[in-house]
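Hi all, long-time lurker, first post. I run a small reading group and we've been trying to get comfortable going from sequence to structure in the token notation. Rather than ask abstract questions, I figured I'd post a concrete chain and ask someone more experienced to write out its structure so we can walk through it together at our next meeting. Sequence below, copied exactly:
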Amino acid sequence: AMFMTRNYGRLNLPMTIEGTVGLPKDSITTVQVTNMLATLAGVPIELDANIGFGTDKTYIEAMAEIPQWEVSLVLQEYVSHFIPEVEMFKTDATVSLLAACFGHYDHRTGKLPSFSAAVSVPESYLKYEGLDTDMKFTLEANLANDEEDRIMVDLTKATVMSDGLEASVSGSTPDILNEDPFFKVDADITATLDSLVRFFPEDMGIHAT
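-- Answer (accepted) --
Happy to help. Here is the structure in token form:
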């Protein structure tokens, strides 16, 4: 697929789509998507959906999944063309995402159907060429909307581990799109100062014992 950008010109991203799209007989126009597998720039996306187009409402029943997205592939093969600095990062991280959407979209009020999503990154390493140590991290997060279309985000757990550093963070917000969202955060951090010095460039002259 060819994409045009203002700052970086044309971006040619490989894309494939396989699956079945049907138009079953119903009282309203209905589109059925079955066993669809799409890949865009190495990101796999699986989709099953039923969409019914009514006069006042559109009914949506959909499940989408990104089973394992290899972060390094996207960074090295595509992002590095317009952000060269990402080549200094090395990681084996994979991102999994599961999303669901059920209910009606109301054309008059703009009310959304119920939707939810879960994101997971299993324990992975991250290395920056300018540092002499690796870092391990994990991530588990969820989001969903409520009856008032507020989008709730729950950071179940995020961890970072390296020599001299262990950090675990969890948190949540009941309305991430609010102009002044409220966040509840819990953190547990253990650090050894002399080990943390390696995260700073030598020319900064930072030392600790």
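A couple of things your group might point at:
Residues 71-77 form the longest helix (7 residues).
The CA atoms of residues 51 and 60 lie 5 Å apart.
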